[in-house]
Amino acid sequence: MQTLFSWIFVLLLFITGNVCDLSISPKGPVSVEALVGTDVTLSVSHAGVPHPEVMWFKGSLLVAKWSVGNSSLSGVASGVFKPELTGSLTFMNVSLRYNGTYTVEMNHIGEEKVSATFYLFVYDIIMNVSLHTDPGDAVEGQVSFTLYYSTMQGEAKEVRWFFNGLQLRNGSHYSISGKNLTINQPSRNHTGRYTVLLTNPFSSETQHWNITVLYGPDMPVLKVSPTKAVFVSGESLFLSCQAEGEPPPSATWFFNGESIATSSTGTVSLTNVKTSQSGVYTCVMINTRTKAKLQRNVTIIVYESPSGEPLCSVQAVNGSAALQFLCLWPGGAPEAQVSFPGLSVNASGYGNYSMTINDIQSLNGREIICKAEHPLIQTQCSVIPRCIGTAPLSRCIVAGGPVDFLPVILISMSQDEQTLVVIHCSAKATPQALVHWIKDGNHLQTGPKYQISTNTTQLFIYDFNVTTDLDTYTCTAINPLGNETVDTTLLGPQISNSSVFRSNNRTEVTLTWDVPLTSVITGFDIQMKGPELSSPSQPKLSIASDFRTIQSKPASARATTVSGLDPECTYYIRIIPKAGRTAGEQSEQHRIGPAAGLSGAAIAGMAAGIPCALLVLLIVLAFIYCGRRDRVPRYPVPRAVEKSTLNPHRLLRARLKPPPEYRHQQPERSAHLPTVNSSVRMATTV
């Protein structure tokens, strides 16, 4: 194209008459590409002047100067440039340092200077292409990430970038400049394979780079297994924590600010959980490459039922003028809610709740229910306020059935043989009654002789003396709903009844006995009169003329067995109750032995009875005889005469006695049986 322009220019000069002016024109392209190590010529042609002066510049630097027709160069290195007769310049074994813009100027004396410009591009074979990143990691959310290339040899004329096989162009996400590919605000979507393609007129080279954009952790996903709103103490559960990220983030669980054992998969196992493990559990996810953190919480609730059952009670307060109802159901998580709906609709409490009622007149015998509610269980208990005593209903201050009021006597003896008697007044009342003790009209107080228990239900009588301390003791129990009084008369040691049972072989007997309920007894002596008891080691028998003690029994004993009796001998056995060292009234004597003949007294009685019987018989016969002798003949008379002459008193001439009135006879009370207050039931225990 340039040659064509040159010829047109010469033709115009010829037409205008200026064909003798100096001119210059490139021969071939002005943009020349060359391979390193080869020769390349920047060709020009001139006209109008046969031998102009030629000067070549690289930029503003003169690199060669000569005159056309003279091939000698001046001021330039030989062996690098070769001048041509046409004014062209040849580069020999061109190197990369000769890349640049070259200008050729021609002039002649009296002529204007003419010039032409060339562009020389020297390329080498592209080799050893490598890719690099700045910064080292691509992180989601950062401002930019740059991928650039470098070569060990050769330069590219054209650079093209590809992402997963698709060519990239400048835009909002990517910027291509020189050797750099910049990713603007990289995201996980920019993860993939990047390729650079370098080409020049003499070679091409491709290189790949896999870029992973780091991100996360995303919002953790927490799971609780099994899925329950509330766990019960003793159950097991699992916590898991998962989150998206590159690289996959690691999970660590925390509870109360302290880390807990976590598996590599982010799972925590909680077995046999307790209420202390209720609370907020935090999962912290960490990206180990970017150090980015994200956490999330989950709340675990562990409930535990209160222990046992709720306990209801009532007690007197305000000087026994009011009743305080208590409902106790301790423990549990959370605490149980308790209330007395029968006393108040709205009032309630937790765990240990009480309510005081001043109007107690209508509460006697009424069941008061405590409603106990826990998230895991609902239950209830109740208490019934009651007045006291075995007295009639009228003795209670308010209406309601009385309850038992039972004194109990306990007796013991110390090592120094001092007797301790305890009277226990068990007043079955609700609330618990306060007991006052009275003797001979005087209130008893705690001292050396008497002591009253803390709950006032027991009276301790120390160093009990049968002579001075056998008396009537009164206990009065009082609670806000009523009061009751009962007397306890202590009796000396005595036996109420006894009996004996002989074995079939008649060598052994069993003796049983009872005692009055309020009799003060510390032991029993079993006494016998008769031959000595025999045994295999002592077969010899001897006869004792008086009672002797053969056994000693404690106060709780009510039976004993006596062995070694001779079936052919007669024995007498009795029981002696004791109170300390004082012996009480003996029991009846029991005879043990073979059936005996008639005694002398019996024979004497029979001898005296026979004559008496004969005399009575004669008297009866005499009455019969006299009655027949005085009878006169009777003749029929009118009934009126019969009635007037009949002497009714003649019917009683025999003087017979009327039959006795058996219904007025009562069996005689045994002299040794005590009189016990019939309104009191008592039991003796040692």
What is the gist of this entry?
Residues 494-597 form the Fibronectin type-III domain. Keywords: Disulfide bond, Glycoprotein, Immunoglobulin domain, Membrane, Repeat, Signal, Transmembrane, Transmembrane helix. The protein has 686 residues and is mainly beta.
SS summary, helix count: 4
- Overall geometry comes to rod-shaped
- Uncertain ranges: 12-19, 390-403, 637-686
Query: What is the beta-strand fraction?
Result: 35-45%
Fraction of residues in helices? under 10%
Characterise this structure:
Strands 2-10-9-5-6 form a 5-stranded mixed sheet, with no helix packed on it. The protein has a 5-stranded mixed sheet with strand order 41-42-38-37-53, with no helix packed on it. The protein contains 4 helices and 53 strands. Mean pLDDT is 82; it is low at 12-19, 390-403 and 637-686. The protein is mainly beta and 686 residues long.
Topology (SSEs and partners):
Layout: H1 2-16, E1 23-26, E2 31-35, E3 40-42, E4 44-47, E5 53-58, E6 61-67, E7 81-83, E8 89-91, E9 100-107, E10 114-123, E11 127-134, E12 138-139, E13 144-153, E14 158-163, E15 166-167, E16 174-177, E17 180-184, E18 192-200, E19 203-211, E20 213-214, E21 221-225, E22 231-232, E23 237-242, E24 250-255, E25 258-260, E26 267-270, E27 279-286, E28 293-300, E29 302-303, E30 311-317, E31 322-328, E32 337-339, E33 349-350, E34 352-357, E35 368-374, E36 377-383, E37 405-413, E38 419-427, E39 434-439, E40 442-443, E41 450-452, E42 458-461, H2 466-469, E43 472-479, E44 482-489, E45 497-502, E46 508-514, E47 523-531, E48 543-554, E49 559-563, E50 571-579, E51 582-583, E52 590-592, H3 600-629, H4 639-645, E53 683-685
Parallel strand pairs: 2-10, 12-20, 22-29, 37-53
Antiparallel strand pairs: 1-4, 3-8, 5-6, 5-9, 7-8, 9-10, 11-13, 13-17, 14-15, 14-18, 16-17, 18-19, 21-23, 23-26, 24-25, 24-27, 27-28, 30-31, 31-34, 32-33, 32-35, 35-36, 37-38, 38-42, 39-40, 39-43, 41-42, 43-44, 45-46, 46-49, 47-48, 47-50, 50-51, 50-52
